[in-house]
Amino acid sequence: MVNLVFLGPPGAGKGTLSEGLCFQEKLVHLSTGDLLRAELKKGSPLGSQVQSIMQSGGLVSDEIVATLVEQRLAEAVKEAVPGFVFDGFPRTIRQADLLGSTLAKLGMKLDAVVLLEVHEEVLILRLTGRRICRKCNKIFHLAYSPPKVDGVCDTCGHDELYQRADDNEESVRERLKVYAAETKPLVAYYEAKGVLLRIDASRDKATNVRNLREALSPFLVKL
Ligand code: AMP
After folding, report:
1. What is the per-residue burial (b if ≥16 Cβ within 10 Å, else e) of 175-201?
2. Where would a tag sit more exposed on the chain, N or C end, judged by fewer CB atoms within 10 A?
3. Are strands 139-141 and 130-133 parallel, antiparallel or unpaired?
4. Residues noted as catalytic
5. Would the pTM count as exceeding 0.90?
6. All domains of the chain, ordered by start, with CATH?
7. How far, in Å, from the CA of 222 to the mean position of ligand 1?
8. Does residue 221 sit in helix, strand or coil?
């Protein structure tokens, strides 16, 4: 089994790169942002509780996200999966401690933490130009990877590409501030545990994927 965390500021490509890796290696993609957005979409009480925090770019409480992760892990471990990729979790030291203890309870451990490094100006351009298919969640970018037909998803043909409510410039700046204050300390936390891998994720997608697979090759051969 191989368990990985994808760490990095918003816009670093955690979602795109971790989803691609999971698809190729049959790993379970566990994104707390996706789990929370699913609650919003369902209109659940939890969804209403977190909506305004998410929209403004703040962090949802550690207890809420840790519970969502624990539930998802408990469902997936029954299916004998080859491993997990945590995307956007942990985001605080407390969440990292909770992840460590949850994995230990399940007899699992973290193999590597992939830190995606990208300059701040690039992050802002990437996030504010991002568009997502309402139906299949495929991610586009107005400048870097636009759909072949304006406003239409290349993958499923649906004609609604939307902008996430927290991808406007104001929320993006807040998310970057929150990352620096709450999440960046995890770099030193995981470095001290000897599991941190740094990847330059500022290039085009094909180069980023190549760099990622090269850095992860010692773990991928185990799959
Ligand atoms: P993401 O899709 O990872 O960019 O997450 C979108 C938003 O969901 C974040 O800006 C937070 O408001 C919330 N969120 C996602 N993951 C976490 C987490 N691990 N801890 C706290 N809030 C989170």
Report:
1. bbebbeebbeebbebbeeeebbbebeb
2. C
3. antiparallel
4. 14, 91, 130, 164, 175
5. yes
6. 2-118+183-220 (3.40.50.300)
7. 30
8. coil
